[in-house]
Amino acid sequence: MLYDLYINNYFDYRSFILDNAYKLGLSPNDLLVLIYLLDEYKNNNKKIDIEGMENKILLHKNDINNSLSLLLENGFYNVILVNDENGLEEEISVEPFLKKVEDFYTFNDDMTNKQIFALIEKKSKRLLTAADYENINNLIVNDKYKLSDFENTISYLEKAKLDITVRNIIKYIERKTATLPDKEEDESIVKELLQKFKQR
∠ CA 101-136-190 to the nearest 5 degrees? Predict the structure, then answer.
């Protein structure tokens, strides 16, 4: 599932790596090399090109080789043999990194997170999709929103008579308010409501 999101540009792996480099045990050099590998793999370039890497990320060959060894050793990618017209060729696979990401989210999916997902499913009256889980996880892990923030946002949406959807939660959670909207927000909400009536 995450592999498809990554290949189709729906998973922002760069932000994930930058936000969680310390937790993942990545040095600045490792971080640059890993992002390069993920960029290239997504563009269907699965062979390691040290010279191309040197030119693009401006690290010395020895630093690149050290980071490649550490990333391989620590399970951020692996090397597989594939049949090519020239015989067996080495290619990389980034699936070990994607597994690490899934494990990372699972590790952070504690009881509070489950309460958040359950609350949203209950209030929106539907099951969350994989994309919904990814978006909500980003709010929890990257933006550090808590259960109370989601409760306040849903309360806000209910009072404003707006649909309780993941899209609206993402849109309004930054306001972190449980009160009714002010005059300017009232006008915006009225416009949205009128738009909904026109569509029916």
Answer: 155
Which residue ranges of the chain lie beneath pLDDT 50?
Answer: 177-186, 189, 196-198, 200
CB burial of 46-75 (b: ≥16 within 10 Å; e: otherwise) equals bebeeeebeeebebeeebbebbbebbeeee
CATH of 2-100, one of 3.55.40.10, 3.60.20.10, 1.10.10.10, 3.30.565.10: 1.10.10.10
Query: Exposed, middle or buried, 165 (CB in 10 Å: 0-12/13-18/19+)?
Result: middle
What is the per-residue pLDDT for 185? 47
Contact 47, 90 (CB under 8 A): yes
Q: According to the model, what pLDDT value does residue 30 have?
A: 94
What integer pLDDT is reported at residue 194 of this predicted model?
52
